């Protein structure tokens, strides 16, 4: 086995574990501290705070997909033995992004007074504080864009452990900082200063790690024309991502227009719940992209193996949660939001649980398409889905099909999306064709099993529901194990016996 193969096989689990921890632990802390922040700020200032965060989040668009494009391009150069080209690419990308994001931030700075006074219903007593606070947070907008690019560079060098060791404490302080600030300074201005400090700390830490990773100085040979291919590739990645988001969330707007706002609540709340599962496939896809981009030119078989193992890893991680959501939907919604939401949204949640299983697995072939430089194929396929499934959903709602049928169409689209991306990946990268065929049985077992559990749960039979869940897990496990080599089974058994080993860089 070559060094590159050993790296691809030996570190995937470690990278996934660190990415999941880096995203999951701050999320748990955010959920825990949200009540304290609301109590300290009050409802009106909390509303302003969330709007300000959303505004800065929008600035992520000005990354233009360059962060992901850097991951793919630099990893490809490293795999082809041309790693010395990386500093020039990074320097051109950063110079371009800083200029664009700084201009956008300046325009936002100038427009904030108008937004506060006329665009938002901010009480007059809060006008001055709101303008000052939002302007301070706008300063962090270029940092958001730069951090995305720096993450992309470090991901190409697969420094996930180091990045997440930085990300976890800094992200934690992103929520702890405002609480501590409000205890001594009851002002949104102090809260925003704390958030900007967090962004800046992350930028400095990422920059230090990047300088150590690159084989040369970043701005020694600055040629802005080098960023053009990155912008083209990143543009397709951004377009594909936006289309995917539109397909994911468009149903609620159709329901609002054709049914009622009450129906929107009963549909959107379960949808938001199942989408929390995306944290796991994102963690896997972030690890897959650079590994695939390094290997696909010289080691197509190893790249196909990464697709197979990545898809199986995602399916194994999300299937238990999907089965729980499908089988215990009514109970979960009752405990979370009460009987009214449970009665109105349980069936929707059961159906969406089937779809989100396939939605999560689709991240693996999407990562391969990005790695081989074909995000345009992902975007075109997403556009084709929009042309077919959005009118179909609208027609179903117009004919009185209800939100459960809309959820069924959403789940069907997710299954088509997953299968279609596997087929497209096999056509554009022939080595992946066998991987797609091997994945068919375990993925079908997982999807059909989740649907069977959802049906039993809807009928209110507790023991048949649990039995079907156990059979679904057993069926998936049997087919998944058959798709692994003897060596892969041995490493999997080792990880099951010693789960903490996944956090070590040499994990299987």
Description:
With 508 residues, this protein is mainly α. It has two domains: 216 residues, no CATH class; 270 residues, no CATH class. The protein is globular and about 60 Å long. 84% of the residues lie in helices and 0% in strands. 48% of the residues are buried. The longest helix is centred in the N-terminal third of the chain and has 39 residues. α3 runs parallel beside α11. It has 20 helices and no strands.
List descriptors.
508 residues, mainly alpha, disordered N terminus
| Helix amount | over 70%
Beta-strand percentage range: under 5%
* Average pLDDT rating: 84
The value of Rg in angstroms is 23 Å
Shape: globular
- Give start-end ranges of low-pLDDT stretches: 1-8
Provide a concise account of the structure shown.
This protein has 508 residues and is mainly alpha-helical.
How do the helices and strands line up, and which of them pair or pack?
Blueprint: H1 3-41, H2 43-58, H3 66-79, H4 86-119, H5 127-138, H6 141-156, H7 160-184, H8 188-213, H9 227-258, H10 261-275, H11 279-295, H12 300-327, H13 329-337, H14 339-361, H15 363-371, H16 375-398, H17 402-428, H18 432-458, H19 462-482, H20 486-497
Helix pairs in contact: 1-2, 1-7, 1-11, 2-5, 3-4, 3-6, 3-9, 3-11, 4-5, 4-6, 5-8, 6-8, 7-8, 9-10, 9-16, 10-14, 11-12, 11-15, 12-14, 12-15, 12-18, 12-19, 13-14, 14-17, 14-18, 15-17, 16-17, 17-18, 18-19
